[in-house]
Amino acid sequence: MPRAGLTPERLVAAAVELADEAGFEGVTLSALARRFGVKDASLYSHVRSLKDLRTRMALLAGGEMIDRIAEAVEGRGAGRDTLAAFAAAYRAYALEHPGRYAATQIRIDRELVTDSPAMRRTADVTYGMLRAYGLEEPDLTDAVRLLRSTFHGYCALESTGAFGAPRDVQVSWDRAIDALHVLLLNWPGEKRTCDG
PROSITE patterns this protein is in (predicted)? Predict the structure, then answer.
C-alpha cells in the first residue's frame, strides 16, 4: 500500500485485517509498518502505542460485532428466538473473524467504554434482551457474564477443532441455547444463608 493517505482509520482497518490473517498477537507496529511500506516510527504520528492500536481495534471490532447482532435480533421480540439470533450472530462473527473477535476480548479502560457508542449499544442490546426475561440488577450482570462466557468458550473450542465427539457441533449449540433459555426463564433468586 502507498504511504500517502496514512490515517489512524486506515491503520486500524489494516490492523484488524492482519489480525484475521495472522492472529491478534501477530499484530505489531512493525508488522503493520511493513504492510504499509513505511518505517515503524512513522506510525507514531497516528497511534500512540501498540496498546492504543489494539484498543482501537477492539472498539472497531466491537462495533462491527454489535451491528451484526443488533441486525439479527431486530424485530424478534423476546425469548428463545431473540436469544438464538443473538447467539448465532455472535458465533458467526467469532468464527469468521478470529483476529477481530480476539480484539473484542481485551480489557478496555472504563472511560473509553463509557465514551464509545458501540460499547453503549452493546450494553443496550444485550441488557435489553435479558430484561425481556424479567431480570434486573444484579442478576442482569450475572446473566451477561454467563452468556458471554458460554458463547466465548464454545467459540474458542470450536475454532480449534477441540470438539472431538461425533455429535454434530450445531446440534450441541442449539441444545446449549435451549438450556440457556430455560435457565433465563427460571433464573434463581439470591442465595440465602440458613440465618437469612
Answer: HTH_TETR_2 (PS50977)
